[in-house]
Design brief:
Helix content: 25-40%
Largest sheet: 7 strands, parallel
Strand content: 15-25%
Oligomer: single chain
Number of domains: 1
Distance between the termini: 30 Å
Order of helices and strands: EHEEHEEEHHEHEHE
CATH class: Alpha Beta
CATH superfamily: NAD(P)-binding Rossmann-like Domain
Radius of gyration: 17 Å
Bound molecules: NADP nicotinamide-adenine-dinucleotide phosphate
Number of strands: 9
């Protein structure tokens, strides 16, 4: 089995790499990083540097990896330090800023579309393919009860729509493949760090734990489930 993990250097990405290499010691694991490659990872992982928001960079990656069974994109964004200090999800529409909104779309939505475009052929060669992206439950329109987080929610809802649309197109051309959006659960990474204080006890997962949960979900996927939005525990989420 050949597995490509986009943004394998992030918290969830590293957790997934560890889970896959533990459960499938013979799997060929390819992972990407943008800024820095993690120091401690299994020697079996082949690392490629790629900016997943850049079409040329993703095309270059696809030239190096010409066949793949599972492609899981773990890239994403929620907050950053800017010249004006901490910039994070909006509590109110008063805090909305176009640049921050577009940055969310760029990092949470665009990479999965570029990966789908450039890896279509590589995935077509698989007899048991999976194309998935780590989305977020807050991207569910139906499940939105709290409001706020305009940019992040909208970018994940757009990601979900992209995946759903792709699943319809690939039902015809990639009959052996399943397209899915995944919610990893709140995981202890840099991305969730400023927002962890209200997480109920036992609901903040270590990255490796999330990796195992996501792998449980991935293992159960079959082509007839294509176009699903699934939580870390296998629960089907509303779009
Ligand atoms: N942690 C949670 O509780 C939680 C909950 C729900 C959903 N999620 C989703 O899970 C995914 C992974 O998040 P995480 O918690 O693992 O966060 P993280 O540790 O901050 O990882 C984010 C990853 O995205 C990569 N990335 C950002 N911009 C990129 C670009 N232009 N090209 C390539 N890679 C890029 C980062 O790479 P560099 O460091 O090299 O820039 C990093 O590997 C995200 O989509 C997030 O929305 C997380």
């Amino acid at each position: 089995m050949k597995v490509l993990i986009g943004a394998g250097n992030g918290g969830v990405g590293q957790g997934l790499i560890k889970a896959v290499s533990k459960r499938y010691p013979d799997a060929e694991i390819i992972a990407t990083f943008r800024s820095s490659r993690p120091e401690k990872t299994s020697a079996a992982v082949q690392w490629y540097q790629a900016d997943l928001t850049n079409s040329d960079s993703v095309a270059q990656l696809a030239k190096s990896v010409t066949q793949v069974d599972w492609l899981i994109n773990c890239a994403g964004f929620l907050h950053q330090q800017s010249d004006n200090g901490f910039q994070g999800p909006e509590k109110s529409i008063r805090q909305f800023e176009p640049d921050f909104f577009l940055h969310n779309i760029q990092l949470n939505t665009l990479p999965t579309l570029l990966l789908a475009q450039h890896f279509s052929l590589a995935l077509k060669k698989s007899t048991h393919g999976i194309f998935a992206a780590v989305s977020a439950k807050v991207g569910s329109i139906e499940d939105n009860q709290l409001g706020g987080w305009y940019s992040y929610r909208a970018s994940k809802a757009a990601l979900n729509m992209a995946l759903k649309t792709l699943s319809i197109e690939w039902q015809r051309s990639h009959k052996h493949l399943c397209v899915a959006a995944l919610h990893p659960g709140t995981t202890d990474t840099g991305l969730s760090d400023p927002f962890q204080k209200n997480v109920p006890e036992g609901k903040l997962f270590a990255p490796e734990q999330t990796g195992h949960y996501l792998l449980n979900v991935l293992e159960q996927l079959t082509p007839d489930q294509t176009g699903s939005f699934l939580s870390w525990n296998g629960e089907k989420l509303p779009w």
